[in-house]
Amino acid sequence: QKEVEQDPGPLSVPEGAIVSLNCTYSNSAFQYFMWYRQYSRKGPELLMYTYSSGNKEDGRFTAQVDKSSKYISLFIRDSQPSDSATYLCAMKTRGSARQLTFGSGTQLTVLP
Amino acid sequence: DTAVSQTPKYLVTQMGNDKSIKCEQNLGHDTMYWYKQDSKKFLKIMFSYNNKELIINETVPNRFSPKSPDKAHLNLHINSLELGDSAVYFCASSQPGGNEQFFGPGTRLTVL
Q: Which residue of B48, B99, B105 is in closest CB contact with A42?
């Protein structure tokens, strides 16, 4: 079993839809939770970062962490075609040598 | 003013050959990484260097050897290439203790 599991998709939604992307993990020592966005043929770029449990909002994006359930989510409101990309969750333990453990990514397509 | 750059962008080669991928970052970061992304988008860390010193060396065949001539450069040399080495290789960098990693555009390696 992988340390981080992510719904692989692919996910296809109409423009304006609310998108929910999810990851579960098994290592209770993870403290830092991130979402990276990767456009086709590009490198991943950090989208959202959360420390420990709770919610964080940035524009149309909301990241949620539920450490008791070992479950993290990324919500995208009013999705746009420009949101079409692969979304990778990533997490890290405290004090680790800056090593991130990634999920396998969810490919999202937002249809105009 | 590219932050993390990699060369070449594409690499097509025969089994058994030796090849190198170069990475440079101009962000002033101390830590650099090599990741391998397979065809299913799973991103797995291979190596990490902090200030030219190897700090992470995941279970990677000895045919892969990273070299860091200075903290702005981390090159990856691969000996005796195999079909299974075909993947996209990403270089990344981060600040000491930072949670955000900045990725290069990737090198798409195809072994025939």
A: B105
Q: Which one of B43, B50, B105 has the shortest CB-CB distance to A88?
A: B43
Q: How far is A95 from chain B (nearest CA, A)?
A: 8
Is the minimum CB–CB distance between B98 and chain A shorter than 8 Å?
yes
Does residue B3 contact residue B26 with C-beta atoms inside 8 Å? yes
Q: DSSP states of A55-94 as a string?
A: EEEETTEEEEEETTTTEEEEEESS--GGG-EEEEEEEEET
Residue A74 contacts by C-beta under 8 Å, 6 or more apart in sequence? A20, A21, A22, A35, A47, A48, A61, A62, A63, A64, A87, A89
DSSP one-letter code for A18: -
Instruction: Please give the radius of gyration of chain B, using alpha carbons only, rounded to the nearest integer.
Output: 13
Listed residue (A69, A70, A67) closest to A52, CA to CA: A67
Which residue positions in chain B have pLDDT lower than 70?
A: 1, 97
Distance from CA of B14 to the nearest CA of A (A): 23
Query: DSSP 3-state assignment of B83?
Result: helix
Q: Kindly list the distances between the CA atom of residue B6 and the CA atoms of A13, A15, A27, A81, B44, in Å, as whole numbers in the listed order.
A: 34, 34, 32, 28, 18
Q: In this predicted model, what pLDDT tens digit does every residue of B42-61 receive, in sequence order?
A: 899 998 888 888 887 777 89
Name every residue whose Cβ is closer than 8 Å to that of residue A100 and which is 6 or more positions away in sequence: A34, A90, A91, A92, B45, B101
List pLDDT tens digits, range A6-53: 987 899 999 999 999 999 999 998 999 999 999 999 999 999 999 888
